[in-house]
Amino acid sequence: MEPEEVAEAFSKLKQSGKVRYFGVSNQNPMQIELLKKYLHEDLIINQLQLSLMHTPMIDAGFNVNMLHDRAVVRDNGVLEYSRLNNITIQAWSPFQHGMFKGVFIGNEQFPELNDKLNELAEAKGVTASAIAIAWILRHPAKIQPIVGTMNAQRLLEIVKASNIELSRKEWYELYRAAGNELP
């Protein structure tokens, strides 16, 4: 990116009244700092992929000082940086596993996770999708999921997640059922 050009475009958009707030997508802390050097506006959003089956920004924090793949910090601590700098993370693809490999809900490749999602969904009277979103909402970073549906009925089912309170134990059970190990 050419940060000076981006900053100029942001300035023009704000002055024209077309935009009130600014954010970025898939940027690490140093990329954000570089852009902030030229901006006159705060960056308040960073859209990043996060789901029960795509958790690298969470994994690194659990595996500090460990000698395995999950300990590698690939994003320069973007989760912690965002919290320190009042940048809201918006989780895109909250139902995907990997990078666009497909939906994990109802996928036979993930029986343990789907069993746990269905167990909690039944207990709380919602869908597995609502539980997957409740898992994201339970994180203390106050992450905002981007659910990406145009189906009104599905959206009505998913928004029930905002009324679900997962316990810390349930959150960790889902994290582990997704194949994540804790040290």
TrEMBL record:
<dbReference type="InterPro" id="IPR050523">
    <property type="entry name" value="AKR_Detox_Biosynth"/>
</dbReference>
<dbReference type="GO" id="GO:0005829">
    <property type="term" value="C:cytosol"/>
</dbReference>
<dbReference type="InterPro" id="IPR036812">
    <property type="entry name" value="NAD(P)_OxRdtase_dom_sf"/>
</dbReference>
<dbReference type="InterPro" id="IPR023210">
    <property type="entry name" value="NADP_OxRdtase_dom"/>
</dbReference>
<feature type="domain" description="NADP-dependent oxidoreductase">
    <location>
        <begin position="4"/>
        <end position="174"/>
    </location>
</feature>
<dbReference type="Pfam" id="PF00248">
    <property type="entry name" value="Aldo_ket_red"/>
</dbReference>
<protein>
    <submittedName>
        <fullName>Aldo/keto reductase family protein</fullName>
    </submittedName>
</protein>
